[in-house]
Predict the structure.
Amino acid sequence: MDSRLKGKRASLDSPPFHGWRFAAIGATLNALLSGFYGRGFTVYFMALARDLKLSHASTSLVFGLSALEGGLQSPITGIFIDRWGPRIMMVIGAALAGVGFLLLPLANSYPVFLLIFIGIISLGANSGFHNCSAAIVTRWFVRRRGTAFGVISMGIAIGGSVLTPVVAYMVVNHGWRVASVVSGVVLLVVGIPLASMVRNSPEELGQTPDGVQEPKKIGLRRASGVDFGFREAARTWSYWLLSIGLTLRIAAGSGVIVHILPLMVWKGLGEGAGGVVIASGSLAAIATRFLMGWLGDRWAKRKLVVIAMLVGAGSVLFLLYTPGKLPFMIAFGVALSITDGAAGLTWAMVGDYFGTASFATIRGSINTMVSLGALAAPVAAGRVFDVTESYYWVLIPCSAIYVFAAAIFLVIRSPQSPVHVVSPHEIA
């Protein structure tokens, strides 16, 4: 029989590849997280500051502490994900975040607000969404890992473009407490059932990464059984340069995004303009995140990230020096979406460099350092504004940080294979 006919017969007899279905579930969960917690919670900024009588610095601290909490618990969560699988952690995370949003309206003071937001919502969000979905696609994909990361990253953009405007409308017209209750109900009713549907690895369903028939075709690291443990990864320059580069990227981005509403007010626009800018940037990011992931499977991920960081630097300067007109601000949001589109690529690089066996642990340890940037940048930006009543000396440093991040990614190289070889049983 002709080899082509054999290939077609084999493809017909084999079950459909489930990896893309689970990537879509990861994207949906990321959309809920982004719409209600990540991008979505930025629209609480002004209402929260007024209601609890907070300064810009104190309000920014809410976001910074949530990032710090995520960073501190990420290594522990990563160990659980690697040992138990992402599925159970996704269910727990969705449940915690949903309950936390339902409890948040009970907060009538800043300390209580912080307790619920950091101790319940942030704990659930940081443990059960991004790291879990990243672990799923890293296990299910090798050759098409960039595209798969682009898919789950699209969820963040979809949440920002679709759900965040809804949250903004509820905050402006009904108050942040109503918005919080609605967010909690959706996370519980939609998030938990979806999380329970995922499977931890292709081996659970008798499949292989990317759905290929021959293991030798699924990728060099996976096929050879070579994976880095955390200690081995931490001994490489690649690990530390990735950590520094990711920290700088997050610091520059969070220093701007967290303050997007007060930035719009500073530029002479209303609070509602912030929601429009976030929505337009997130809408554009749906395309840029997928495109960057797709290109990452065909071109060097590292070079794409460098380009994205330089675009980020330029977009921040564009925001600073253009007139405070809504079309210009929308253009800024769209330009920043290109930088945002590199988020999935940076984490895909972690999987490419260090393998799958300890991916969540390694990613979690890197996220601990990343959280420091996410904590420091928004708080510092708020403090600078409180002192100067201007965002000029916020935007200039953020642009410079993007350039520095680009320089870091420019010199990163793939590490040499570790001495330790992970068995196929350990990988499964």
Remarks:
- DSSP finds 20 helices and no strands in the chain.
- The domain at 18-427 is CATH 1.20.1250.20 (Growth Hormone; Chain: A;).
- Residues 6-12, 215-225, 420-428 have pLDDT under 50 and may be disordered.
